[in-house]
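Sequence, please.
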């Protein structure tokens, strides 16, 4: 009989969580993410469903909104990445007003915190992480990968999402940059 065991994006049974030179890098074990995009001509129903389901205003460009239970990240015009809700939950709530795709297995996530995390991020990305306020979010290349950077706490707390298929490369980039400070 085959015994399947869940693993993190890095292939471990427990998520990576280590402090390197004052910067904590913690793998998000199983991110709950879904993409949400408004269907053409469905703006009224989409916005009504968003208000009732997400319990937050839809964010504008470069922003995110919500709380720890559900956060909505702007990805493009009428396109969002939703943390904390599955594709099935969003699909049931939005119906024909949105295109919804579960993204939990598509992304690897790392929470980064510490006084030097801005200096670390400046080595990896052209995103102006020094000026990002809590709630700001941006898509940015990071070590040759397309990533999403979300500011949790200005200057000291960020989340980086990158392709799950490149989780080891993203992890290596983060730990090497932290060690280089």
């Amino acid at each position: 009989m085959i015994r399947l065991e869940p693993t993190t994006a890095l292939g471990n049974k427990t998520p990576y969580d280590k402090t390197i030179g004052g910067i904590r890098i913690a793998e998000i074990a199983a991110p709950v993410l879904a993409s949400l995009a408004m269907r053409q001509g469905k703006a009224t129903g989409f916005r009504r469903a968003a208000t009732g389901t997400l319990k937050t205003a839809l964010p504008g460009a470069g922003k995110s909104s919500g709380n720890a239970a559900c956060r909505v990240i702007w990805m493009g015009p009428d396109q969002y990445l939703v943390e904390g809700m599955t594709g099935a939950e969003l699909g049931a709530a939005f119906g024909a007003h949105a295109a919804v795709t579960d993204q939990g297995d598509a992304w690897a996530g790392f929470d980064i915190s510490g006084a030097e995390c801005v200096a670390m991020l400046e080595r990896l990305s052209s995103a102006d992480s020094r000026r990002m306020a809590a709630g700001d979010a941006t898509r940015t290349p990071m070590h040759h990968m397309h990533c999403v950077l979300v500011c949790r706490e200005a200057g000291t707390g960020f989340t980086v999402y990158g392709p799950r298929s490149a989780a080891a490369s993203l992890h290596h980039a983060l730990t090497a940059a932290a060690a280089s400070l």
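The longest helix spans residues 167-179.
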